[in-house]
Amino acid sequence: MWPLVPKMNKACDGLFGRRASRAMRSGSAVLLFLGAACATPQVPALPDTEPMAPLARAALSEWEAWGGIAVSGWPEERPADTAATPERFARLVGYWTAVPGGAGVARLLSGQRSAIAAVLTDQGGAVETKGDGRATTISVAASWSEDIGLYAYPAWSAAFISAVVRRAGIPESDLPSSARHAHYIDAVLARAIADPQGARFHPYAPEDRAPRSGDLLCADRSPVPLTHWSMRLAEAGRPRPMHCDVVVRNGPGVVEVVGGNVQDMVVLRRLPGDAVGRVLPAPPGQPPFVLVLVAQEQG
Q1: Against a cut of 0.85, is the pTM above it?
Q2: Fewer CB within 10 Å, N- or C-terminus of the chain?
Q3: pLDDT single digits (tens) 215-265
Q4: DSSP letters of the chain?
Protein backbone atom coordinates (compact mmCIF):
# COMPACT_ATOMS: atom_id res chain seq x y z
CA MET A 1 0.00 0.00 0.00
CA TRP A 2 1.13 3.58 -0.59
CA PRO A 3 -0.13 6.05 2.04
CA LEU A 4 0.88 9.68 1.71
CA VAL A 5 4.02 10.69 3.56
CA PRO A 6 4.66 14.42 4.15
CA LYS A 7 8.38 14.21 3.54
CA MET A 8 10.67 14.43 0.52
CA ASN A 9 13.44 11.92 0.01
CA LYS A 10 16.96 13.03 0.91
CA ALA A 11 19.96 11.81 -1.01
CA CYS A 12 22.70 10.25 1.11
CA ASP A 13 25.82 8.25 0.40
CA GLY A 14 25.81 4.44 0.44
CA LEU A 15 27.77 2.56 3.07
CA PHE A 16 28.88 0.10 0.43
CA GLY A 17 29.72 2.94 -1.97
CA ARG A 18 30.88 6.00 -0.03
CA ARG A 19 31.48 6.68 3.64
CA ALA A 20 28.53 6.10 6.01
CA SER A 21 29.65 9.08 8.09
CA ARG A 22 28.01 11.28 5.46
CA ALA A 23 24.67 9.45 5.71
CA MET A 24 23.01 12.06 7.89
CA ARG A 25 23.59 14.88 5.46
CA SER A 26 20.80 16.04 3.20
CA GLY A 27 22.02 15.62 -0.36
CA SER A 28 21.83 18.38 -2.93
CA ALA A 29 21.13 15.76 -5.63
CA VAL A 30 17.46 15.96 -4.67
CA LEU A 31 17.34 19.52 -5.96
CA LEU A 32 18.83 18.44 -9.27
CA PHE A 33 16.24 15.69 -9.68
CA LEU A 34 13.26 17.55 -8.20
CA GLY A 35 11.88 18.89 -11.44
CA ALA A 36 11.76 15.41 -12.96
CA ALA A 37 10.58 13.61 -9.82
CA CYS A 38 7.74 15.89 -8.73
CA ALA A 39 5.60 14.88 -11.69
CA THR A 40 4.45 11.43 -12.72
CA PRO A 41 5.56 11.24 -16.36
CA GLN A 42 4.53 8.49 -18.73
CA VAL A 43 7.64 6.33 -18.62
CA PRO A 44 8.20 4.16 -21.71
CA ALA A 45 8.53 0.39 -21.48
CA LEU A 46 11.93 -1.23 -21.73
CA PRO A 47 12.74 -3.96 -24.27
CA ASP A 48 13.95 -7.38 -23.20
CA THR A 49 17.61 -7.00 -24.09
CA GLU A 50 19.41 -8.80 -21.23
CA PRO A 51 19.05 -12.17 -19.49
CA MET A 52 16.59 -11.90 -16.61
CA ALA A 53 17.41 -13.01 -13.06
CA PRO A 54 15.31 -15.88 -11.62
CA LEU A 55 13.72 -13.57 -9.05
CA ALA A 56 12.68 -11.12 -11.76
CA ARG A 57 11.22 -13.97 -13.84
CA ALA A 58 9.22 -15.21 -10.85
CA ALA A 59 7.85 -11.72 -10.19
CA LEU A 60 6.95 -11.19 -13.84
CA SER A 61 5.18 -14.55 -13.94
CA GLU A 62 2.95 -13.46 -11.04
CA TRP A 63 2.36 -10.09 -12.67
CA GLU A 64 1.21 -11.75 -15.87
CA ALA A 65 -1.12 -14.03 -13.88
CA TRP A 66 -2.76 -10.95 -12.36
CA GLY A 67 -3.49 -9.48 -15.77
CA GLY A 68 -0.27 -7.70 -16.69
CA ILE A 69 -1.27 -4.25 -15.41
CA ALA A 70 1.50 -1.65 -15.90
CA VAL A 71 1.54 1.94 -14.65
CA SER A 72 3.93 4.89 -14.73
CA GLY A 73 5.19 6.26 -11.46
CA TRP A 74 2.57 6.94 -8.80
CA PRO A 75 -0.87 7.10 -10.44
CA GLU A 76 -3.71 8.44 -8.30
CA GLU A 77 -6.39 6.21 -9.81
CA ARG A 78 -6.60 2.47 -9.36
CA PRO A 79 -6.50 0.21 -12.42
CA ALA A 80 -9.82 -0.33 -14.17
CA ASP A 81 -9.77 -4.08 -13.57
CA THR A 82 -9.51 -4.89 -9.84
CA ALA A 83 -12.00 -7.75 -9.71
CA ALA A 84 -11.42 -10.44 -7.10
CA THR A 85 -11.42 -13.27 -9.61
CA PRO A 86 -10.99 -16.80 -8.26
CA GLU A 87 -7.52 -16.93 -9.82
CA ARG A 88 -6.35 -13.70 -8.19
CA PHE A 89 -7.81 -14.62 -4.83
CA ALA A 90 -6.14 -18.03 -4.91
CA ARG A 91 -2.76 -16.45 -5.64
CA LEU A 92 -3.22 -13.96 -2.80
CA VAL A 93 -4.01 -16.79 -0.39
CA GLY A 94 -0.92 -18.58 -1.69
CA TYR A 95 1.29 -15.62 -0.81
CA TRP A 96 0.09 -15.74 2.77
CA THR A 97 0.82 -19.44 3.09
CA ALA A 98 4.45 -18.66 2.18
CA VAL A 99 5.13 -16.71 5.40
CA PRO A 100 5.22 -17.76 9.06
CA GLY A 101 1.79 -17.25 10.62
CA GLY A 102 0.26 -16.57 7.24
CA ALA A 103 -1.93 -19.67 7.24
CA GLY A 104 -4.20 -17.98 9.78
CA VAL A 105 -4.53 -14.92 7.55
CA ALA A 106 -5.29 -17.18 4.58
CA ARG A 107 -8.10 -18.83 6.55
CA LEU A 108 -9.43 -15.42 7.59
CA LEU A 109 -9.54 -14.14 4.02
CA SER A 110 -11.13 -17.35 2.78
CA GLY A 111 -13.77 -17.03 5.50
CA GLN A 112 -14.49 -13.46 4.46
CA ARG A 113 -14.90 -14.52 0.85
CA SER A 114 -17.22 -17.37 1.83
CA ALA A 115 -19.32 -15.00 3.95
CA ILE A 116 -19.70 -12.59 1.03
CA ALA A 117 -20.71 -15.45 -1.27
CA ALA A 118 -23.26 -16.65 1.31
CA VAL A 119 -24.84 -13.20 1.57
CA LEU A 120 -25.19 -12.99 -2.20
CA THR A 121 -26.69 -16.46 -2.32
CA ASP A 122 -29.20 -15.62 0.42
CA GLN A 123 -30.27 -12.50 -1.45
CA GLY A 124 -31.04 -14.62 -4.50
CA GLY A 125 -32.53 -12.70 -7.40
CA ALA A 126 -33.75 -9.14 -7.65
CA VAL A 127 -36.73 -7.94 -9.70
CA GLU A 128 -36.09 -5.20 -12.23
CA THR A 129 -39.11 -3.53 -13.84
CA LYS A 130 -38.62 -2.31 -17.38
CA GLY A 131 -40.30 0.68 -18.98
CA ASP A 132 -42.88 -1.45 -20.79
CA GLY A 133 -44.15 -2.94 -17.52
CA ARG A 134 -42.47 -6.33 -17.90
CA ALA A 135 -40.55 -7.71 -14.93
CA THR A 136 -37.24 -9.51 -15.29
CA THR A 137 -35.39 -11.37 -12.54
CA ILE A 138 -31.62 -10.79 -12.47
CA SER A 139 -28.95 -12.42 -10.31
CA VAL A 140 -27.50 -10.23 -7.57
CA ALA A 141 -24.24 -12.18 -7.71
CA ALA A 142 -23.95 -11.54 -11.44
CA SER A 143 -24.66 -7.83 -11.13
CA TRP A 144 -22.16 -7.07 -8.36
CA SER A 145 -18.42 -7.24 -8.95
CA GLU A 146 -16.35 -8.19 -5.93
CA ASP A 147 -13.18 -6.09 -5.63
CA ILE A 148 -9.80 -7.50 -4.64
CA GLY A 149 -9.39 -4.45 -2.40
CA LEU A 150 -11.70 -6.16 0.10
CA TYR A 151 -8.74 -8.39 0.94
CA ALA A 152 -6.01 -5.73 1.01
CA TYR A 153 -5.65 -5.95 4.79
CA PRO A 154 -3.54 -7.23 6.35
CA ALA A 155 -1.12 -5.70 3.84
CA TRP A 156 0.38 -8.47 1.71
CA SER A 157 3.25 -6.82 -0.18
CA ALA A 158 5.90 -8.53 1.99
CA ALA A 159 4.12 -11.88 1.65
CA PHE A 160 4.28 -11.40 -2.13
CA ILE A 161 8.04 -10.78 -1.98
CA SER A 162 8.50 -13.85 0.23
CA ALA A 163 6.52 -16.04 -2.17
CA VAL A 164 8.40 -15.00 -5.31
CA VAL A 165 11.76 -15.23 -3.52
CA ARG A 166 11.01 -18.86 -2.64
CA ARG A 167 9.80 -19.63 -6.16
CA ALA A 168 13.06 -18.20 -7.49
CA GLY A 169 14.97 -20.77 -5.44
CA ILE A 170 16.52 -18.29 -3.00
CA PRO A 171 16.93 -20.00 0.40
CA GLU A 172 15.59 -18.72 3.70
CA SER A 173 19.13 -18.07 4.91
CA ASP A 174 19.57 -15.42 2.21
CA LEU A 175 16.20 -13.72 2.65
CA PRO A 176 13.77 -15.11 5.26
CA SER A 177 10.05 -15.25 4.58
CA SER A 178 8.12 -12.63 6.52
CA ALA A 179 4.86 -10.70 6.50
CA ARG A 180 6.89 -7.55 7.25
CA HIS A 181 9.46 -6.00 4.90
CA ALA A 182 11.46 -4.60 7.82
CA HIS A 183 11.94 -8.09 9.23
CA TYR A 184 13.63 -9.60 6.20
CA ILE A 185 15.51 -6.34 5.52
CA ASP A 186 17.03 -6.55 9.01
CA ALA A 187 18.12 -10.13 8.35
CA VAL A 188 19.65 -9.24 4.97
CA LEU A 189 21.54 -6.25 6.41
CA ALA A 190 22.89 -8.34 9.30
CA ARG A 191 24.08 -11.05 6.89
CA ALA A 192 25.71 -8.53 4.55
CA ILE A 193 27.68 -6.98 7.41
CA ALA A 194 28.63 -10.24 9.13
CA ASP A 195 29.43 -12.21 5.97
CA PRO A 196 29.90 -9.88 2.99
CA GLN A 197 31.51 -12.63 0.90
CA GLY A 198 28.71 -15.14 1.46
CA ALA A 199 25.72 -12.78 1.52
CA ARG A 200 23.45 -12.94 -1.52
CA PHE A 201 22.29 -9.31 -1.16
CA HIS A 202 24.32 -6.19 -0.43
CA PRO A 203 22.72 -2.86 0.58
CA TYR A 204 23.22 0.38 -1.31
CA ALA A 205 21.66 3.81 -1.25
CA PRO A 206 19.49 4.33 -4.37
CA GLU A 207 21.57 7.29 -5.53
CA ASP A 208 24.74 5.16 -5.38
CA ARG A 209 23.65 2.18 -7.41
CA ALA A 210 21.54 1.51 -10.49
CA PRO A 211 19.43 -1.55 -9.64
CA ARG A 212 19.51 -4.56 -11.91
CA SER A 213 17.17 -7.41 -12.71
CA GLY A 214 16.67 -9.46 -9.53
CA ASP A 215 17.48 -6.66 -7.07
CA LEU A 216 14.98 -5.28 -4.56
CA LEU A 217 14.10 -1.58 -4.44
CA CYS A 218 12.72 -0.52 -1.05
CA ALA A 219 10.87 2.56 0.18
CA ASP A 220 10.05 3.78 3.68
CA ARG A 221 6.31 4.33 4.27
CA SER A 222 6.60 5.69 7.81
CA PRO A 223 5.63 9.28 8.76
CA VAL A 224 9.29 10.04 9.52
CA PRO A 225 11.23 8.00 6.95
CA LEU A 226 14.87 7.07 7.14
CA THR A 227 17.24 9.35 5.25
CA HIS A 228 19.71 6.50 4.73
CA TRP A 229 19.40 2.74 4.99
CA SER A 230 22.25 2.50 7.53
CA MET A 231 20.02 4.27 10.08
CA ARG A 232 17.99 1.06 10.19
CA LEU A 233 20.91 -0.72 11.87
CA ALA A 234 20.36 1.25 15.07
CA GLU A 235 16.69 0.27 15.26
CA ALA A 236 16.84 -3.29 13.96
CA GLY A 237 13.89 -5.34 15.17
CA ARG A 238 11.60 -2.38 15.70
CA PRO A 239 8.46 -1.97 13.58
CA ARG A 240 8.79 0.26 10.51
CA PRO A 241 6.35 0.20 7.59
CA MET A 242 8.27 -0.31 4.37
CA HIS A 243 7.66 -1.58 0.85
CA CYS A 244 9.95 -3.43 -1.55
CA ASP A 245 9.51 -4.24 -5.22
CA VAL A 246 11.43 -6.66 -7.43
CA VAL A 247 13.45 -4.92 -10.14
CA VAL A 248 12.78 -6.65 -13.45
CA ARG A 249 14.42 -4.34 -16.01
CA ASN A 250 16.55 -1.21 -16.02
CA GLY A 251 17.77 1.28 -18.60
CA PRO A 252 18.55 4.96 -19.11
CA GLY A 253 15.66 6.93 -17.66
CA VAL A 254 13.58 3.90 -16.60
CA VAL A 255 13.48 1.40 -13.73
CA GLU A 256 10.79 -1.28 -14.03
CA VAL A 257 9.66 -2.98 -10.81
CA VAL A 258 6.97 -5.48 -9.86
CA GLY A 259 5.32 -5.38 -6.45
CA GLY A 260 2.33 -6.78 -4.62
CA ASN A 261 -0.47 -4.92 -2.84
CA VAL A 262 0.26 -1.92 -5.07
CA GLN A 263 -3.17 -0.38 -5.60
CA ASP A 264 -4.42 -3.71 -4.17
CA MET A 265 -2.94 -5.63 -7.12
CA VAL A 266 0.30 -7.09 -8.45
CA VAL A 267 1.48 -4.26 -10.69
CA LEU A 268 4.48 -3.41 -12.82
CA ARG A 269 5.56 0.19 -12.27
CA ARG A 270 7.82 2.16 -14.58
CA LEU A 271 9.77 4.57 -12.41
CA PRO A 272 11.78 7.53 -13.69
CA GLY A 273 15.53 7.06 -13.56
CA ASP A 274 18.63 9.03 -14.46
CA ALA A 275 20.89 8.51 -17.46
CA VAL A 276 22.66 5.50 -15.91
CA GLY A 277 19.52 3.85 -14.55
CA ARG A 278 19.50 4.99 -10.92
CA VAL A 279 15.97 5.55 -9.69
CA LEU A 280 15.12 9.21 -9.14
CA PRO A 281 13.82 10.38 -5.76
CA ALA A 282 10.11 9.84 -5.21
CA PRO A 283 7.96 12.96 -5.52
CA PRO A 284 6.71 14.80 -2.41
CA GLY A 285 3.95 12.91 -0.65
CA GLN A 286 5.21 9.50 -1.74
CA PRO A 287 7.37 7.02 0.25
CA PRO A 288 11.04 7.80 -0.42
CA PHE A 289 13.34 5.13 -1.79
CA VAL A 290 15.96 4.35 0.84
CA LEU A 291 17.53 1.02 -0.09
CA VAL A 292 18.57 -1.15 -3.01
CA LEU A 293 19.30 -4.76 -2.10
CA VAL A 294 21.71 -5.77 -4.85
CA ALA A 295 21.83 -9.47 -5.69
CA GLN A 296 25.35 -10.86 -5.88
CA GLU A 297 26.51 -13.34 -8.48
CA GLN A 298 26.33 -16.86 -7.07
CA GLY A 299 29.11 -19.30 -7.85
Answers
A1: no
A2: C
A3: 999 999 999 999 999 999 999 999 999 999 999 999 999 999 999 999 999
A4: ----BS--------TTTS-GGGTTSPPTHHHHHHHHHSS---PPPPP--SPPPHHHHHHHHHHHHTT--EEES--SSPPS--B--HHHHHHHHHHHHTSTTHHHHHHHHHHHHHHHHHHHHHH-EEEEE-TTS-EEEEEHHHH-PPBGGGG--S--HHHHHHHHHHHTT--TTTS---SSHHHHHHHHHHHHHH-TTT-SEEEE-TTT----TT-EEEEE-SSS--SSGGGGGGGTTS---EEEEEEEEEETTEEEEEEEEETTEEEEEEEEB-TTSPBPPPPTBSPPEEEEEEEPPP-
